[in-house]
Amino acid sequence: MSAEPTDLQLMYDLEPVAEKYVNRHLEMAKDWNPHDYIPWSDGKNFYALGGQDFHPEQAKLSDVAQVAMVQNLMTEDNLPSYHREIAMNMGMDGAWGTWVNRWTAEENRHGIALRDYLVVTRNVDPVELEKLRIEQVTRGFSPGQNQQGELFAESLFDSIMYVTFQELATRISHRNTGRACQETVADKLLARISHDENLHMIFYRDLSAAGMDMAPNRAMHSLHTILRNFKMPGYTVPGFRRKAVMIAVGGVYDPRIHLDDVVMPVLKKWRIFEREDFTGEAAAQRDDLAVLVEELNEAADKFEEQKQRRIAREQKTGRRTSAQEVLATAGTLTLSRR
């Protein structure tokens, strides 16, 4: 059996595929303008221009929606780190460079639109929001870390496979956040953003599939590494754990959603458990992915039990955690207590 291609060779071999999918993306993508999704007539000047600064009572979104909106925005705000990651792994030449720049331009709209919405509708304190953005971008992000924060070697496969799952997860998170807002404008905005994320996911998913056909064992090594160590890009946001719990309990993104709507659809699309071209260590890693799926299923069931106990406890005591408390764990955002 011939040796599988190096990363550099793989990049050359995949470039025609990348070009094909870039062109497909440009045909499918629909341009939109962030300003069209902002209720500007609701806006007021802040103190610096003779108006009134933010007060927590002005926020109208629910606790879950507030936390999810801020978490989604902070995830989008780390775009400089994401751009650097894919540029380093894909390069800036030819179709690769075209995609890197186009993807970055489209992703940049998301942060612009989310911030404008939150500030204009006064659902967050814009001063604290800016402090959090500075801290988040300063922390940066790299998908090449395991759960202990240790770096593992990154490759082209690591990058495109990670982003396949991440884009799908982000799409679902945005869409469910829009529903949680129970506000028409926010729902339309987040639906628009989630549509972008879906097209991005399709690009990475299909590119990964083509690469897997070229180098199945190397692809499996990356897939196994990514799924065994998967973390959402927002994990670097201050107070991430408590935010993630509130978002999960609120049904925006939880372990069951992660398994059923993110992990399994991609694995099925790639026919991971049907393919017969994995050998040696890669075959063992494919078998371990089946174990991982069972572990994720057990974790999802366990979380649901914990969630129901938490809801019952809150109903009994009348005490539930507010967005203000969750976001205050980072010493940053102060939102309304509802």
UniProtKB/TrEMBL annotation:
Residues 282-313 form a coiled coil. Homodimer. Belongs to the fatty acid desaturase type 2 family. It holds the Pfam family FA_desaturase_2. SUPFAM superfamilies: Ferritin-like. This is Acyl-ACP desaturase. Its cofactor is Fe(2+). Keywords: Coiled coil, Fatty acid biosynthesis, Fatty acid metabolism, Iron, Lipid biosynthesis, Lipid metabolism, Metal-binding, Oxidoreductase. The keyword Lipid metabolism applies.
